[in-house]
Structure to design on (517 residues):
């Protein structure tokens, strides 16, 4: 029966062991006694090193909490960190069995010696980390002391914004025990020197990598923590880079507008002012460091200079286009303009415009009598060829052969074209001759003695001659023989030298060969 009772009580015993934890039995009296015993003779004014022939080893572990801010212009980085320090204090050890199995005790940090950790590359102060905070330390029975404190620290970090906004920055945090050399205290990096268990990401910067190591720097033991962050480029690409590229593309498009519309200057000036306003809006978003300078900033400067040059060129070309053709060009502009191979495009010359058909006054003066004589020689050749064409035409016309009608039409077309060219050549020759004569008379102050012939469309009065009715060719092939006789008589007279009379004679009409049919 006793065995059966024990079997039935076994499950209850197992449940009791699972749900109840055997705790240490230390009481307030035990902890008070422990505190009194270890701190009665404890001295916190000097290093708690058991062997002063060697350096006191302090193990450091850094907890990176957040990257608060990174300033490229001031080259500073603000980080929130926590630091855990562990060392051995020879005067703070006890036997746990004597104090109710108490293995550790928690006291204020002012009750024991603590190392003063300072951030060497700080941009604010060189005060110890956690100073002014009420921090507690944990002391274990074997003399191990652990303290954890932290703060938001600002450190110097050299920025490289050459590839902004696609840049990455690498920064260092250097910690030392202030005022104590490496022969007395040796900072040792923990097996996991940088802990990211409490890290919170930043919206502008993403953490790429971290590392920590212990080095000797200028005779001091130094813990160096290195981290690399990469910028999020989306915002700067949309707000800064894309508008800059758009303005640089819009600038040269002003030359696609017609120069006589007057919109070139307005559009180029509007683009320049718009980009200037855009720069004032985004100037705080672009780092203005000089070593090295950002490629995006260089592109923005080149774009605004390029836009200003386009405005100047647009104004200059518009002034050339609308200028008076009579005044002479400045000698300086003329010299440099003659050296430019694309000067015609720069001057915006219109090949088919009416202004180009006007012979410049200075060019006419340079032509002089030599050009007039050459043109007269051309006129004589044209008269001779025209006479030969008349003979061929009359022979063909007299044959009255139906098969020769196409040839008659061809001769009619050629003859009419020659008449037109003859009238144009005579008109140019007479204009040049009258101009030269006018210049000579004006130099001799005899303008009032000159009498200009009165030009009518169909009639003309000549000095020493009576009114003469010019023969008019109506375009009918039946009237051509009589007109030919009148034309020959007309060409021998002084009246034949008048271009306006020639124009009135033909009225730009061609021979109408179909009337005879």
């Amino acid at each position: 029966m006793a065995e059966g009772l024990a079997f039935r009580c076994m499950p209850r015993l197992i449940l009791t062991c699972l749900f109840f934890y055997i705790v240490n039995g230390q009481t307030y009296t035990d902890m008070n006694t422990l505190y009194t015993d270890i701190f009665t003779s404890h001295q916190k004014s000097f290093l708690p090193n058991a062997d002063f022939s060697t350096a006191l080893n302090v193990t450091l572990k850094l907890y990176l909490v957040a990257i608060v801010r990174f300033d490229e212009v001031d080259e500073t980085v603000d980080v929130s960190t926590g630091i855990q320090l562990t060392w051995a204090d020879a005067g703070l050890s006890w036997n746990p069995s004597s104090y109710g199995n108490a293995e550790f005790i928690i006291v204020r940090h002012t009750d024991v010696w603590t190392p003063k950790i300072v951030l060497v590359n700080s941009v604010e102060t060189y005060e110890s980390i956690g100073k002014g905070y009420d921090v507690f330390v944990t002391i274990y029975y074997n003399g191990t002391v652990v303290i954890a404190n932290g703060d938001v620290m600002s450190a110097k970090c050299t920025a490289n914004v050459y590839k902004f906004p696609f840049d990455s920055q690498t920064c260092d945090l250097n910690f030392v025990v202030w005022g104590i050399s490496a022969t007395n205290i040796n900072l040792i990096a923990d097996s996991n020197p940088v802990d990211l268990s409490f890290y919170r990401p930043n919206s502008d910067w993403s953490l790429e990598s971290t590392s920590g190591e212990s080095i000797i720097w200028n005779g001091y033991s130094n813990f160096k923590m290195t981290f690399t962050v990469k910028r999020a480029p989306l915002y700067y690409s949309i707000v800064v880079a894309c508008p800059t590229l758009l303005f640089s593309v819009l600038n040269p498009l002003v030359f696609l507008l017609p120069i006589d519309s007057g919109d070139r200057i307005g559009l180029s000036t509007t683009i320049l002012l718009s980009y200037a306003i855009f720069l004032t809006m985004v100037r705080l978003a672009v780092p203005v460091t000089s070593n090295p300078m950002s490629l995006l900033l260089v592109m923005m400067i080149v774009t605004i200079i390029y836009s200003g040059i386009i405005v100047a060129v647009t104004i200059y070309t518009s002034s050339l286009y609308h200028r008076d053709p009579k005044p002479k060009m400045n000698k300086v502009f003329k010299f440099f303009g003659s050296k430019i191979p694309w000067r015609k495009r720069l001057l915006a010359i219109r090949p088919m415009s009416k202004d180009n058909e006007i012979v410049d006054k200075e060019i006419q003066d340079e032509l002089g009598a030599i050009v007039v004589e050459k043109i007269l020689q051309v006129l004589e050749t044209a008269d001779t060829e025209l006479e030969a064409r008349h003979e061929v035409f009359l022979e063909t016309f007299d044959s009255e052969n139906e098969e020769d009608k196409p040839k008659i039409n061809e001769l009619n077309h050629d003859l009419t074209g020659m008449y037109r060219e003859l009238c144009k050549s005579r008109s140019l020759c007479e204009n040049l001759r009258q101009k030269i004569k006018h210049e000579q008379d004006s130099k001799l102050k005899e303008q009032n003695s000159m009498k200009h012939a009165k030009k009518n469309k169909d009639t003309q009065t000549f000095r020493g001659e009576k009114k003469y009715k010019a023969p008019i060719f109506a375009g009918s092939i039946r009237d051509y023989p009589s007109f030919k006789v009148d034309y020959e008589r007309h060409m021998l007279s002084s009246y034949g030298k008048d271009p306006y009379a020639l124009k009135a004679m033909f009225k730009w009409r061609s021979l109408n060969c179909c009337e005879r049919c």
Remarks:
- Residues 1-23, 348-367, 449-468, 505-517 have pLDDT under 50 and may be disordered.
- The radius of gyration is 54 Å.
- Residues 235-355 form one domain.
